[in-house]
Amino acid sequence: MNQNELRTFLDKTEAIIGRNWLENATSDPEEIASYYSKLRKFYHKMHSQEGAMHFPIKPEEGGSHADGLMFHVKDLDETVKDMDYKKVIEFGCGVGFNIINLARMNPNVEFIGYDLTENNIRIAKERAGLRNLKNVHFQLGNFDTMNPKDFEKQDMIFSIEAMCHSKDLDLVIQKCHQILNGHGRLIVFDGYGTQKSRSADEDTLRAADYFSKGFFLPNPQYLDETIDSGKKAGFQDLIVKDYTKNILSNFVRFEDGVKLIFKFPWLTKLLIKFKIMPIELFRHGLAGLYGPYLLKYGFAGYFRIDCRKS
Ligand SMILES: C[S@@+](CC[C@H](N)C(=O)[O-])C[C@H]1O[C@@H](n2cnc3c(N)ncnc32)[C@H](O)[C@@H]1O
Questions:
Q1: Contact indicator for 107, 135 with CB cutoff of 8 Å
Q2: Ligand 1 pocket, 225 CB below 6 A?
Q3: Is residue 53 a contact partner of residue 136, using CB atoms and an 8 Å limit?
Q4: What spacing in Å lies between the alpha carbon of 116 and ligand 1's midpoint?
Q5: What is the pTM of this model?
């Protein structure tokens, strides 16, 4: 989508669902959990039968979807081994794709998967049980409201496309700092608004808002503010890597798929009205529709942030 097409798609989006509905759409924890429960089968069918719920990171010249989904696991596995870490937790583990793979690759390390969505925790437990893994456990909880004192000290905390759902990322980062050992680190893979997005035109701001609503993101999160939060929490060293170009091809495929339902807005409106198309699915589509535009024009990016305590 280019800048001229953007206006057309914004108009079509509002014709289908109404500007009022879009402005009033919220992303509370119950709604986030319901979204992930309802879209679980969609993710399974369209994205990863192994349960990954994140973007594949691929070399710019291509690469397989399955390898791209494993990029994060391989990257984190290297850190666990290099640092000889023994206790690792994933905040927002989904159905356990990352933490189960890491547990298999590191039988002497203890892993915890933590997630808000009961359905995801249930499936993650089943998947770990099928593999007879004894070094991974799962816990239901909300990282926005958790008490750091309820956790044993950890060597590494990681989070892949989950902290974007936080209502107060600054506070979550402070809590992670408290949970980590002195040599520990927090590694986050996620999307953030860039400096450029702060002075974006009105249409782009609307696209960014609809994108956030599509992925049930309660607040805009910016890269610079997140780095400041890490420093404020007491992390000594923050290393940022930009993987925006490596997720774009997959995102554009998502956009192409979503554009099909915008060909006949009146039909989509009817399908939603008669509940043939779940509203969550349409809403999810907005992230696919506007995400690539925001990435391509530099209003948002996808980053790995490594926050080291020492
Ligand atoms: C996009 S999925 C990513 C799952 C997993 N990290 C992966 O890479 O496959 C985001 C996950 O974050 C969880 N989540 C969202 N908000 C959360 C919160 N406040 N506390 C804990 N988990 C949360 C959701 O339930 C969902 O399973």
A1: yes
A2: no
A3: no
A4: 7
A5: 0.96
Query: Which structural domains are found in the chain, ordered by start?
Result: 3-308 (3.40.50.150)
Q: Is the dihedral of CA 256, 257, 260, 266 positive or negative?
A: negative
Alpha-carbon distances, residue 22 vs 6, 256, 283, 286, 290 (angstroms) = 16, 22, 9, 11, 14
Q: Report which secondary-structure segment, H or E, holds 192.
A: strand 180-193
Q: Verify whether ligand 1 is closer than 6 Å to residue 94 (CB atom).
A: yes
Per-residue pLDDT at 43:
87
Burial classification of residue 309, based on how many CB atoms lie within 10 Å of its CB (0-12 exposed, 13-18 middle, 19 or more buried)? middle
Q: What is the reported pLDDT for 3? A: 85
Ligand 1 close to Cβ of residue 175 (< 6 A)? no
pLDDT category, 20, cuts 50, 70, 90? Answer: very high
| Residue of 165, 169, 171 with the most ligand 1 atoms within 8 Å of its CB, for mutation | 165
**Mean pLDDT over residues 175-195, rounded?**
97
Q: Percentage of residues in the chain with pLDDT exceeding 90? A: 93
* Cβ pair 93, 118 in contact under 8 A: no
Query: Over the stretch 227-237, which tens digit does the pLDDT of each residue have?
Result: 999 999 999 99
Which of 40, 116, 171 has most ligand 1 atoms within 8 Å of its beta carbon, as the pocket-test mutant?
A: 116
218 in Cβ contact with 29 (< 8 Å): no
pLDDT one-digit tens code per residue, 164-177: 999 999 999 999 99
Pocket of ligand 1 contains residue 172 by CB under 6 Å: no
